[in-house]
Design a protein that fits this description.
Elements (H helix, E strand, L loop, with lengths): L1 H16 L10 H14 L3 E9 L2 E12 L5 E14 L5 E4 L3 E10 L4 E11 L2 E7 L2 E21 L6 E19 L2 E21 L4 E21 L7 H6 L3 E8 L1 E10 L2 E9 L2 E8 L2 E17 L2 E18 L8 E12 L3 H7 L10 E13 L16 E15 L2 E12 L11 E11 L1 H11 L4 H14 L1 E2 L5 E8 L5 E3 L2 E2 L2
Antiparallel strand pairs: 1-2, 2-3, 3-4, 3-5, 4-7, 5-6, 6-8, 7-8, 8-9, 9-10, 10-11, 11-12, 11-13, 12-15, 13-14, 14-16, 15-16, 16-17, 17-18, 18-19, 19-20, 20-21, 21-22, 22-24, 23-24, 24-25, 25-26
Helix pairs in contact: 1-2
Length: 503
């Protein structure tokens, strides 16, 4: 994580200088000084040559370095020049050459290293800084910006022989505001009409070639963040406790990606498209939250080991994750959920398993939500966790909601709610003793089993065993081919299925 915090600071370079307007005045020197203080706050050593002429400041030979923790090596990034020109309205115009290069060198102690030269070509880039020294706003726009890996040298056992990538962003615009008080707070919005990217990797040791390209339509972002003015960049735990946080949302109108892989002489190809999608992320001492959704997805697969091209479609794919990060005396919430809605496969694939069309070929849906409470004894950002075999907390409660599995004409739904006694790990073979119940409902289960028998996938004997198990755990419901089940664990540690004790 310490490496992550420092690299986050480096990434801010692109956000700031390719990243609104207010009253009051800022000077060229104040803009450069604020940016330099920001990078030094992330642990960088910054050196540069400064030349002032009137209201203008030219900063050249910019070099930023930091030493990785635990003597793992060093990292360096350089830029040839930035220009800051004071304007008559009290703002500052930040300039970069139409073509500029950045060099990144990483020399870890484990023998692996990299030396990359990244070229940035901009068309119509304009960045204006306004406001006042403790509250600067960056307004920016560009007709296009192209980022290319111009040269790269890798070393190490897992290093590729060659790598290339190009990213093109068209019709960019946005605003980024930074205010300095007890914390450095940031708010940013940006819009990009379209993004295209291409990447290729050659790895002779693995006998693999990878080529990937894609597009994103109408990409936008809105977010806020806070960074302490001073912190130890090698101690992520202290960074979070000092108030570091970030939250933001990404949206796009559509995307497409194509990847071709050749491994050991065998080709494999993947193509996918999606419609509107969004992603929301937050990251602070309050916890980690991550949720995304995509609509109208397609996936096409082909390759030497696939006898025919496979095409899948989904009306929806969504996921969400919530987890605490810091230890606390009270219980904290966590959650995980996912939905794959209306997954459809082509008839050519159905015909392999069911040529007689025994089973209904309706789209499949799988979804569930897990909610719970946990108590953490150790901060998950504490580096000591990496060397510990013990889970740094305990499970207190777990709730299942919105379980649905719709497949080949059958439907399983369910919900449940349990608490856990962590003082008793004997009753259930090392697991905390649960208390609670779950209820399930199965429609069309016997019809599905009959169809599998008719297809020859399940034998009559195996089906008889399955029906016996369903009879043990379920009772008949009021609808045709309906089974219902209530699984309960009581305070005595007994497991009951529809009131009948099975443990």
């Amino acid at each position: 994580m310490s490496r992550w915090t420092q690299l986050t600071g480096a990434t801010a370079l692109a956000c700031i200088f390719t990243a609104s307007a207010a009253t009051a005045d800022v000077t060229a020197a104040e803009v450069w000084s604020d940016w330099r203080a920001y990078m030094e706050g992330f642990g960088y050593q910054v050196s540069a040559d400064e030349a002032t002429s009137g209201d203008s400041l030219v900063v050249s030979n910019i070099i930023m370095t930091f030493d990785m923790p635990d003597n793992e090596g060093s990292f360096a990034m350089s830029m040839p020049e930035l220009r800051f020109d004071g304007q008559s309205d009290g703002s500052v115009l930040v300039g970069m050459p139409d073509v500029t290069t950045m060099r990144v060198i990483a020399e870890p102690m484990d023998g692996e290293s990299l030396d990359m030269t990244i070229e940035m070509v901009s068309d119509g880039l304009s960045t204006v800084v306004s406001g006042e020294p403790d509250a600067m706003t960056y307004d920016y726009e560009a007709r296009s910006m192209t980022i290319t890996l111009a040269d790269a040298t890798f070393s190490g056992d897992d290093a590729p022989d060659e790598m290339d990538f190009t990213i093109v962003m068209n019709d960019m615009s946005g605003s980024s505001t930074m205010e300095v008080g007890d914390m450095r707070t940031m708010a940013q919005v940006f819009d990009v009409a379209s993004v295209t990217y291409d990447m290729s990797v050659v790895d002779t040791d693995e006998d693999a070639n990878i080529n990937m390209s894609g597009t994103i339509d109408a990409l936008s972002f809105e977010g806020t963040g806070a960074v302490p003015l001073t912190f130890d960049a090698e101690d992520p735990n202290a960074l979070f406790k000092a108030g570091f946080g970030f939250e933001g949302s990404f949206n796009q109108d559509g995307a497409a990606v194509a990847m071709n892989v050749t491994s050991e002489g065998q080709p494999f190809a993947v193509e996918s498209t999606s419609g509107q999608g969004d992603l929301e992320v937050s990251f602070s001492q309050e916890g980690l939250s991550y949720a995304g959704q995509g609509n109208d997805l397609t996936l096409n697969l082909s390759g030497a080991e696939i006898p025919f091209p496979v095409s899948l479609t989904m009306a929806e794919a969504s996921y969400d994750l919530l987890m605490p990060l810091m230890a606390a005396e009270e219980d904290q919430d966590f959650a995980f959920g996912m939905t794959i809605g209306d997954l459809a496969v082509p008839d050519v694939l159905w015909n392999i398993f069911d040529p007689a069309e025994v089973l209904p070929r309706t789209p499949a849906t799988i979804g569930f939500d897990l909610l719970g409470k946990t108590r953490l004894f150790t901060d998950l950002m504490d580096p000591s966790i990496e060397s510990s075999d013990e889970f740094p907390g305990e499970l207190k409660a777990l709730t299942l909601e919105n379980l649905v599995i719709e497949l080949a004409g059958a439907e399983l739904t369910g919900q449940g709610d349990f608490t856990f006694d962590n003082s008793d790990t004997q009753s259930f073979d090392g697991m905390p003793k649960p208390l609670g119940a779950a209820e399930f409902r199965l429609l069309g289960g016997n019809a599905l089993l009959d169809g599998l028998i008719k297809m020859g996938i399940v034998s009559e004997q195996d089906a008889m065993g399955a029906r016996m198990m369903m009879g043990l755990f379920a009772v008949l419901g009021p609808a045709e081919d309906e089974l219902k089940s209530r699984i309960e664990v009581n305070e005595d540690g007994h497991v009951l299925a529809n009131g009948q004790r099975i443990k």
